[in-house]
């Protein structure tokens, strides 16, 4: 009985540590970086589901956040890449425009050592492209529902 109680207590502590790590990584992200990543992740999820719903809104919000960032935390190309993505009118164009934006955000996260344990970098050899996502299962924005789990995590 004591062993079961101890095991239960250890599992609860491990859960709290994981939640604390997620909160700490999230808290380390200042605005506009956090909102940029939130909009990016919405786009990534929608593309993985073969949808461009809200694409112009979310990509436009990224471009606006970068442009109005007085601290110049994010490189200006993130804003121009997001603006290009916002102009995409179909899934193929959106996926093509998503690649350079993904590359820039991956570089930003790596250069600033942000989001470890929360934001994962995945790579699809079929699309020859990487992206950022959360979660433990690959959700490929370049191949969508046809090959949703194609790819591998790089971190």
Note down, in words, how this protein is organized.
The protein has one domain. The N and C termini lie far apart (39 Å). Helix content is 56%, strand content 8%. The protein is mostly helical. Helix 3 packs antiparallel against helix 4 and helix 4 (76-86) packs antiparallel against helix 5.
Summarize the structure.
With 155 residues, this protein is mainly alpha-helical. It has helices spanning 2-27, 33-48, 55-67, 76-86, 91-111; strands spanning 120-124, 129-133, 152-153.
Question: Helix and strand layout, with pairings?
Answer:
Layout: H1 2-27, H2 33-48, H3 55-67, H4 76-86, H5 91-111, E1 120-124, E2 129-133, E3 152-153
Helix pairs in contact: 2-3, 2-5, 3-4, 4-5
Keywords:
globular; 3-stranded antiparallel β-sheet; mainly alpha; 5 helices; 155 residues
Overall residue-averaged pLDDT value: 86
Largest sheet: 3 strands, antiparallel
Q: Structural class, from helix and strand content?
A: mainly alpha
In total, the number of domains comes to 1
Number of helices: 5
Kindly estimate the percentage of residues that lie in beta strands according to DSSP: 5-15%
Uncertain runs:
1-27
The gyration radius over C-alpha positions equals: 17 Å
Into which percent range does the helicity of residues fall?
Answer: 55-70%
Number of strands: 3
**What is the CA-CA span between the terminal residues?**
39 Å
Strand order of the largest sheet: 2-1-3
- The ordered H/E elements are HHHHHEEE
């Amino acid at each position: 009985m004591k062993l079961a109680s101890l095991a239960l207590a250890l599992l609860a502590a491990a859960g709290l540590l994981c939640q604390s790590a997620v909160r700490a990584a999230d808290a380390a992200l200042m605005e506009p970086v956090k909102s940029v990543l939130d909009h990016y992740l919405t786009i990534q999820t929608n593309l993985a589901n073969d949808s461009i719903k809200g694409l112009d809104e979310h990509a436009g919000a990224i471009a606006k956040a970068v442009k109005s960032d007085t601290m110049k935390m994010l490189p200006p190309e993130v804003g121009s890449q997001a603006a290009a993505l916002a102009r995409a009118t179909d899934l193929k164009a959106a996926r093509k425009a998503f690649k350079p934006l993904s590359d820039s955000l991956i570089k930003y996260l790596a250069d600033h050592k942000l989001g470890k344990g929360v934001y994962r970098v995945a790579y699809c050899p079929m699309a020859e492209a990487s992206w950022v996502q959360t979660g433990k299962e690959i959700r490929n924005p370049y191949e969508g529902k046809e090959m949703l789990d194609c790819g591998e995590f790089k971190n």
